[in-house]
Amino acid sequence: MADMLRRPGLNRGQKKKNSPGPLLAWIVVPVLMVFAWKVAILVILGMLPTLVALVIDRRPEKYAAYCVGGFNLCGLVPWVVKLFVDGQTGIALQHIMINPFSWLVIYGAAAIGWLVFSWTPELVLRMTAFRDRQEIVSLQKRQETLVEEWGPDIIPPRAEEF
Amino acid sequence: MDLAESEMLDLEQPQGAIAPAAADERDEETEGRSDAVVELKQRFMIYSDQALPQLDSGDSFAFHAQLKADTARPFYALLPPADMPARTDMLETMRNFNVPGLLKVAEWGKIYWPPEKRHRFAIVLERPGGVRIFPDLKVPQAPLQEEELITGFLTSLLPAIREFTGRTLAHRAIRPNNIFYADAGRRSMVLGECVSSPPAFDQPAVFEPIESAMAHPTARGNASSIDDLYALGITMLFLILGRNPVSDLDEERVLANKIEFGTYATLVGQARIPLALMEPLRGLLTDDPRERWGLQDLDMWLAGRRQSPKQPKLPQRASRPFVFNEVEYFNTRSLANALAKDYINAVTVVRSKQLDAWLRRSLNDEPRAEAMQQAVSSTANHISAGRGSEDRLVARACVPLDPAAPIRYRGFGLSVDGIGPALASAMSHRERRQLIAEVISSRLPVHWISAQAKPRAEDLRAVQLLDRLPTMIDNPSIGYGVERCLYELNPGEHCHSPIFDREYVADLSHIVPALERTARRSKRPESPLDRHIVAFIAARARRMNDDVVRALQNPDPATRALATLRVLASVQDQTNSGPAPALAQWLAGMLGGVVGSFHHRKRREKIGERVRRAATDGQMSELLSVVDDEAERASDTRGFNEASSEYRAIEYQLKQFETEKPRRDDESRHFGEQLAAAAGGLLVSIVTAVTIFATMI
Q1: What percentage of chain B carries pLDDT values higher than 70?
Q2: Chain B residues within 8 A of A6 when measuring between CB atoms
Q3: Torsion on CA atoms B598, B603, B605, B606, rounded to nearest 10
Q4: Residue B473 half-sphere exposure toward CB, CA atoms < 13 A
């Protein structure tokens, strides 16, 4: 996991790519803080695992943040919608905040996100390796057939140099 | 006793003739048979158990023979030794001779010889009616009377000699012990055979003119009928005297005396000769061939026209002698003879200016001195170029001193047209063979012919051929060398290959059947071709591709085997030799490498099967077409190249898998992360949509 999140080393002097995300965050978060501060509190507390993923994933693609954030948001969205539906009241926020189930759902979804992010590359790697092995066996079989048909002279004398 | 012997000859008919087997068709299976009777060309039966030692000729042994169509007519077969070339070129001509005074050649050819269990060459001749007139030259006998000599001897033999002269041939074996009484009554005589050995091989030197006597017995050459008349004269002298007049002298002394005093003076000396016979003797024993009596002179004498006796023409005598090895020489012929014999000490003499001075001052022979100087200087140039030797210097120097004498190299005399037979008989004598090879290689025959004032047509023809041979003899490749020279110089000579030690292969058509018999033996050589056989084929075949001959020496066994097959297939086709399954199977075994050189396994198996089938048929051209199929070979090569490229490409791909594994793993992981991120995004979209939808409901 740590290897996966290690920053692939930007060259000195290389500028970070300007994306609209942070700018949007700087606009949306203050607006939310002013006009829907209860939702903002829930979102900030609920999205903490995503923030952690964002911080520890030092690669520019931030796949960990996307994956964990996606699952984290999945766990958070029903509670945010409930807060909206309940009129963004303090009681509603309190009810959600003190409900362990809500945190279980929010952080459990984030944990699943982490698991998915950890396992998917390994799964893809194994699948690719399996496919490669099949391909190698097939190629080796073809070579054996060629040698059987045309004799060992067909083997280049310094094939190992390839 | 003669009569009894004559009768014995006639009575020696085979008792209870056994049905013979066809000689040419005998093979390994039938070689074990004990039949003593063999057939020659289905015309004659030869009885190997009935030797006729009284008719032996030199080293050739005689056996009883019968004409199948007429068993009453007496014949005998002569079997020449394998290492002595017979005069096969004369046989066809001599069969057509229809004159009295000569043993008629009836048939000749290859036979299977049961006592030796191998094939040999045999010549069948009509058997003489009587015994030899002078069985042993060392044992004196009663002299012939003048009348007997003229009517019994000269009149009997002259038609035969005339026949030879008319066909520009020479008998070359006229001597008393090779003349037979034609009948038991001893009224007429016949000349014995002259074909079982090289020309004049069995002639004691005394019967040969000076020039021919200087040559080695195997290298005396065909010469001409004028030399026959010389031998006739010597024979006459022996018969007149009833003995050898120079039996107390060795051959070298006789030769030296002949040179110094002339033949007549040397041989007749103080002997008492009937006055009437002195004239023909002087005429026939003249040493200068241009002055010697010819047939016309002899006819005139027999017709009673007497001529003034010829005086011996001796070589030009010098005013002062030339001293060599403490012996004084007064003429160039004697000196040349001495120099040729002591060729080691002769080098100093040849190089010295004394000889030149002697030629110019004592002999007053400027042209000879010039020719001598030219010969020495040209040889010296060769020596300085590293191409000659002192022996060659002496050999060349002797030519201008005595142009009519044979080539003399290291004491070995060779007439130009005698080089072929000499080489054939020297094949089993390493030193003599090497010596003759050096004579050919150093172009001594060309030098000799250029020194002749009036070269004979036969000598010119021989030199034309000899002029081509140095390049061949100096070529160490198979198909060339001394073996090739042997077969080029002797068109009728049999193949001397050790592979044919039990065969007699004298013609291209004999090769495949002989090899077929060899192939059936349990002990056979590694290859059916060796230097002798290839040289024999190259000399006899109408067409022979030099590239194929060169391929016979290729280090690759498969290439050699294919070249061997090509040569033998060509011979089989050219000679229509018929199927040779054992030989074909022998070759098929050798072709394993050729079949193995096809890369494709199934194609190889298919061709191997076709080779086996073709070998069973015994047709080598068919075998060749199978293994030498260009289309099949091209297809195999193309397929092999394509397969090889494919193998390399796969090898490259496999290496790629190995070397690029970390990169591919990274890519996979990266893709996995992308997939996980996408899954997160997708999931949040779905959950949000579902939640909002559910809330709105």
Answers
A1: 93
A2: none
A3: -120
A4: 24
Interface test with B, best of A5, A139, A150 (most B CBs within 10 A): A150
The verdict on residue B311 lying in a domain is no
Q: Is the ipTM of this complex over 0.85?
A: no
Q: Residue B696 — very low, low, confident or very high, per pLDDT cuts 50/70/90?
A: confident
H or E element at residue B409: strand B407-409
Task: Calculate how close chain A gets to B683, using CA atoms only, in Å.
Answer: 7
Output the pLDDT for position B16.
35
Number of domains in chain B: 5
Distance separating alpha carbons of residues A89 and A96, to the nearest angstrom = 11
For A54, the domain range is 21-151
The residue of chain B nearest to residue A50, with distances taken between CA atoms, is: B680
pLDDT in tens, B435-491: 999 999 989 999 999 888 888 888 888 888 888 899 999 999 999 999 999 999 999
- Which one-letter amino acid corresponds to residue B232? L
Angstroms from B646 CA to nearest CA on chain A: 8
Is the pLDDT score of B384 beyond 70?
A: no
Q: Is B136 part of any domain?
A: no
Q: What's the pTM?
A: 0.77
Quick check: helix, strand or coil at residue B408?
A: strand
Q: What is the pLDDT of residue A156?
A: 84
Residues B675 and B624 in one domain: no
Residue B246 lies in a domain: yes
Give the nearest chain A residue to B677 (CA atoms).
A67
Name the minimum distance, in Å, from the CA of A30 to any CA of chain B.
23
Find the CB nearest A150 among B643, B673, B684.
B643
Helix (H, G, I), strand (E, B) or coil at A11: coil
User: Which candidate in B687, B690, B695 is best for mutational testing of the A interface (most A CBs within 10 A)?
Assistant: B687
Q: What CA–CA distance (Å, rounded) separates B236 from B216?
A: 24
pLDDT-derived band at A40, boundaries 50, 70, 90: confident
**Which residues, 6+ apart, have CB-to-CB distance to B110 below 8 Å?**
B23, B24, B119, B120, B121, B122, B504, B506, B510
Chain B CB contacts of A76 below 8 Å:
none
Which residue in chain B has the smallest CA separation from A70? B680
- Express each pLDDT in B69-106 by its tens digit: 999 999 999 999 988 999 999 999 999 998 989 999 99
Q: What is the mean pLDDT of residues B60-74?
A: 94
Cβ pair B676:A117 closer than 8 A: yes
Q: How far is CA B371 from the centre of its chain?
A: 34
Q: Are residues B119 and B64 in the same domain?
A: yes
Q: If pLDDT is split at 50, 70 and 90, which confidence band does A60 have?
A: confident
**Count of structural domains, chain A:** 1
The answer on B276 and B159 residing in a single domain is yes
Q: Is residue A42 part of a domain?
A: yes
Q: How far does A134 lie from chain B, in Å, by closest CA?
A: 12
Instruction: Verify whether the Cβ–Cβ distance B683 to A74 is below 8 Å.
Output: yes
Instruction: Determine contact, residues B38/B48, Cβ cutoff 8 Å.
Output: yes
In order of A117, B180, B235, B352, the CA distances from B176 in angstroms are: 126, 9, 6, 46
Over range A139-156, report the average pLDDT. Answer: 92
Residue B600: enclosing H or E segment and its boundaries? none
Nearest by CB to A151, from B601, B655, B671: name it: B601
Claim to verify: residue B484 and residue B530 sit in the same structural domain: no
Average pLDDT over residues B139-155: 91
Residues 6 or more apart whose Cβ sits within 8 Å of residue B401: B332, B333, B335, B336, B339, B368, B372
Is residue A72 included in any domain, yes or no?
A: yes
For residue B335, which of B399, B422, B409, B390 has the smallest C-alpha distance? B399
Contacts of A121 in chain B (CB under 8 A): 668-673, 676
Nearest neighbour of A125 by CB, restricted to B639, B644, B669: B669
- Three-class secondary structure of residue B66 per DSSP: strand
Contact B655 A124 (CB under 8 A): no
